[in-house]
Amino acid sequence: MTAGTPFPAGTYVLQVAAMRQSVDATAVANSLRAKHFPAIVVSPTTDKYYHVQVGPYHDVKSADAAKKGLESAGFKAIVKH
Q: Which of 27, 12, 16, 22 is nearest to 43 (CA)?
């Protein structure tokens, strides 16, 4: 995980989007929350993007299950550790 990510070390998160505008990232996070995904927006640290992330998950199996749920809801996600 990158520095500045508010999730505990050793956990998995799913990155759903990286956007230049805070308002756009917040809109994606809000739509994820409306579908009951624990989404947050991480402010830029090493790049100029607001990262929309879902998690944390304590093991890769849980992260993969959440990824499948996101894909079923129309979102693409990558697992980050």
A: 22
Q: What pTM, to 2 d.p., does this model score?
A: 0.86
| Residue 5: CA count within 13 A, CB half-sphere | 23
Structure tokens at 72: 């079923």
pLDDT digits (tens, 9 = 90+) for 31-62: 999 999 999 999 998 899 999 999 999 999 99
Which of 44, 46, 54, 45 has the alpha carbon at shortest distance from 20?
44
Q: Which amino acid is at 31?
A: S
Based on C-alpha coordinates, what's the Rg of the chain?
Answer: 12
User: Which stretches of the chain are assigned E, i.e. beta strand?
Assistant: 12-19, 39-42, 50-57, 78-80
CB burial of 14-36 (b: ≥16 within 10 Å; e: otherwise) equals bbbbebeeeeebeebbebbeeee
